[in-house]
Structures are given as C-alpha cells and as structure tokens.
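During the no-cost extension, the postdoctoral fellow (Dr. R.K.) reprocessed legacy sequence entries with the updated structure-token encoder. One reprocessed record is reproduced below for audit purposes.
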Amino acid sequence: MIATVMMIVALVKPKWGTFGKKPEWNRKKAAGLWLAACIVLSGLASATTPPEVKQAQQQKAAQQKMEEEAKKHVFAKYYGFTMEQTKALDEALASVGLGKIKDSTKQGEHDYTLDVEAANHDYDPAKDVVHVFFDQDNKLLSVKLRTIPLWDNGKVVHQVSDYILSIPERSEAEEMSKTMVKTVLKAPSTAKFDDKTFKYFKVNGEITMIGTVDAQNGFGAMIRSPFKTQFKMVNGKMKPTGFIFDGNEIL
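Re-encoded structure tokens follow.
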C-alpha cells in the first residue's frame, strides 16, 4: 500500500518520491523504483499467504463472480428468480440439450416461453417453442418442446435432438431425398426442386421431409409432383425408411 502511494507521489514530484536523496531522478525513474517495489512486495505477500487462506480467497472470488453472472440471468433480471432457482433451470435445460436463454416471454402466471440456444450449435430451436413451467415457489416442474415433454418432475424424458433436426441432418436428408426422387422421374435431368415447399419433421429420431418437384413427364410436359421421404439413423448413418412420390408408395 505504501509503495503504491509512493509511486503516485513520485509521478507528481520525483524529488519527494526519493525523499530528496536523488534530486536528479526524473518521474519515470523514481516511479519505476516504487513500481518494482510494488511487484516484489506483492509477490512476497502471495508467497507467504497460507494455502488455506489462498483457497478461501479463490472460493470467495468465484462465488462473487457466480453471483454477478446470476444477476444477469433473464429469469433473475425480469422475474426475480434466485441464483439457486436460475441454476436449477439451467441444469434442467442442459440435461435435454438446450443452452443459454437469450430471452423469455411470460405466458401465464407460472408459464414461460424461451428464446434459447441449443447446447450443440448444429441445432437451432425456433423462438417460443420451448416452454418451462414452475410452481408458485418458482420450482421447475417441466420443460416442453411445444407439447412434447423434454424434462418432467426432475427427470429427462427426451432430448431436443429427438425432435429437432441438426443442420447436417437437414442437409443430408435433402440431398438423399433429391436423389431418391430423381430415380423415379421420367426425365431426371429436368428436375427443379422448389425449396420453398420443403418441410422437415423429426419424431423420436425419425426424420420426415416433404416437398415438391417440377419435371418433364413422358410427353415432355413439365408437371409438379409432391413427395415424402423418411429416414432413421442406423449405426451413425442415415437410412431411408419410407418414400411416397405423387401419391404412390415406393418404399
């Protein structure tokens, strides 16, 4: 503490910083002396601090950091949740594959919808499709994806990945679907897929894709046909399990 004060004094008046013994020293030299003293004394203090005191200081700092972060939590900031309550919510979300809450909308007295990230950034839950429900004491009761229970009464029921396609899954399903459709077309080289009609679903791990394609028929006329494909992951690979084209079941 004294060394710090003397360093400031030396910056203001170099002569005072050396107690008048080195009047020829400039500010930089005088302040540098006391800065070095600060570093040495700080190192000595750290080296002589008992391990249990160091541990207690580190724990206190970590606790203070956690408390500051907890105050920034959406549910603490807007709804008055305690650190323990927000921690319980975050742990439940993490257990089903969900991550940081970006925003929340209160739907009822104890019902909220979330704008939340997925723990794995390959997934992108739509805003307001994740619901959380609490009792009157803000104890978490359930987490739902629309009406599908993910977490209920302290237990994991489903993972978000059971019902939301990852970005790689969507890309692979689309490419495989296009290949399957082209195999049944009269003129596959004329196929033009309308991406705007593509829709994807995932239920208990089974992926469904629907869409339309424009292609020439046997008479050379361009016609639009709907299709539906289904897939499952088998040993880490996507396998077709169903295929309907223009109302006809192919697989």
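The helical segments are 2-12, 14-17, 27-48, 51-72, 74-79, 83-95, 167-182. The first strand starts at residue 98 and ends at 106. The remaining legacy entries will be reprocessed before the final report is submitted.
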